[in-house]
Amino acid sequence: MLTDDELRAVLRAEAAAHRPDRAAILERVTRTTMRTEAARRRGPRVRIAGAAAAVAAVIGGGGVAQWALAGGTGSDRPTPPPPTVTVSASPAVAPSASPSRSSPSRRPGKPTAPSVTSAGPAADTTAMGPLRSGGSVEVGGKTRANSVVTIRTGEELTALEVTIRLAGTAELVPRSGSQQVPGASVDSSVTEEAGALVYHFTLSSGDTLDPGTYTFYARYTYAPGGRDPGADRYAVTATSGSGAALTVGGGFG
């Protein structure tokens, strides 16, 4: 009769020497699983993976048996080696994207026409290339004045046009336009356009202006008490002897 210690030693030796036929066990489990697969029709890959895990648990059970024969309990229980399981992963299928809500279409706004000032640039541009300009007001009495445009050119000019636009004010009446342009002929006129007086001075065709200073006057009368020239504008366009187009303009501040 073996003692308890001797029996444990024999069982421990038998468990250590035991080598289960893993291939045979796996073949039997797989064969059984495949026979029932047609009837069950549920997740074949998962069931095979589960069977493989069960086989691994059976194969790896030797360690648990040794622990039981040794009489161990609690924290000294050996951890069975993790089974090796190969699972064939199905290709991931991306969920169909929900159609994004498009922003409501907006009707294009009506284009805004650019602001146009007939008497010249909206902003003062009193110098360009060889051409310089300035505007001033000469008061000749309680109801008379001249709006004066003075230009200075450092090159010969082959074409020149000066426009003075006076905003309509109380009792504004044109007198005449005049100029100081020695050595050249200048045509002048005054018209009323959209509630304003417009004076035009144009260098005659074929004439030229030498480098120098030239002055143009818009003469008029107005109501007693004075007149505000803040809305008055002038513009000068010219062509230099080298063919450059020049444009300057401003107000009468």
Task: Report on the architecture of this protein.
With 253 residues, this protein is an alpha+beta fold. It has four helices and ten strands. The chain has a five-stranded antiparallel sheet, with no helix packed on it. A hairpin with a 4-residue loop joins strand 9 (233-240) and strand 10. Helix 1 packs antiparallel against helix 4 and helix 2 (22-40) runs antiparallel to helix 3 (44-59). Mean pLDDT is 74; it is low at 46-78 and 85-122.
The general outline is rod-shaped
User: How many angstroms does the end-to-end distance come to?
Assistant: 132 Å
Structural class: alpha+beta
Low-confidence stretches: 46-78, 85-122
Mean pLDDT: 74
Global Rg: 54 Å
Going across the biggest sheet, name each strand in turn: 1-2-3-8-5
Beta strands, count: 10
Helix segment tally: 4
SSE topology sketch:
Layout lengths: L3 H14 L4 H19 L3 H16 L2 H8 L57 E2 L2 E9 L4 E10 L3 E11 L5 E8 L5 E8 L2 E8 L8 E10 L11 E8 L4 E6 L3
Antiparallel strand pairs: 1-2, 2-3, 3-8, 4-7, 4-9, 5-8, 6-7, 9-10
